[in-house]
């Protein structure tokens, strides 16, 4: 089943179950996918779809931090529920050990030896972990590995 078919199936199930939160999140993802398709002016690849869903997740995570800092626990709780739903459409996140191993392997692949090579490492690394690891966390691990 392709991604759009899964979204439509889940949308129908959420409507039947009268699950307003799930329905709103799925509609938001569907809308973001349609906007990306229109912007690109052609069908989205699976990587493009993954990037759109990851962007939806990132937006909600950023908002969650803002709501928690502002003391709006009611909105933060709602966003946590939405984040859990969005994560269902992303591949499983890499564990810290797996991510560290991929970082080390990529550094050896690129032949990086100092912080000057960070750009090359990140360029080679990000496609490998796309949608499965947070970019800031990857950046932090690469900096730590290159500064040894």
TrEMBL record:
It comes from the Bacteria. Gene3D superfamilies: 1.10.10.410, Uncharacterised protein YqeY/AIM41 PF09424, N-terminal domain. InterPro entries: Asn/Gln_tRNA_amidoTrase-B-like (IPR003789), GatB_Yqey_C_2 (IPR023168), YqeY/Aim41 (IPR019004), YqeY/Aim41_N (IPR042184). Pfam families: YqeY. This is GatB/YqeY domain-containing protein. It comes from Lapidilactobacillus gannanensis.
């Amino acid at each position: 089943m392709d991604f759009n078919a899964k979204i439509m199936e889940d949308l129908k199930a959420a409507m039947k179950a009268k699950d307003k939160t799930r329905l709103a999140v799925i509609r938001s993802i569907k809308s973001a996918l349609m906007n990306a398709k229109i912007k690109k002016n052609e069908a989205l690849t699976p990587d493009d779809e993954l990037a759109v869903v990851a962007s939806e997740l990132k937006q909600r995570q950023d908002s969650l931090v803002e709501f928690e800092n502002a003391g709006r626990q009611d909105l933060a709780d709602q966003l946590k529920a939405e984040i859990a739903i969005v994560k269902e459409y992303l591949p499983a996140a890499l564990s810290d050990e797996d991510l560290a191993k991929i970082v080390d392997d990529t550094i050896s692949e690129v032949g990086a030896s100092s912080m000057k090579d960070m750009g090359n490492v990140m360029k080679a690394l990000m496609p490998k972990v796309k949608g499965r690891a947070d970019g800031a966390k990857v950046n932090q691990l690469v900096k730590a590995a290159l500064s040894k």
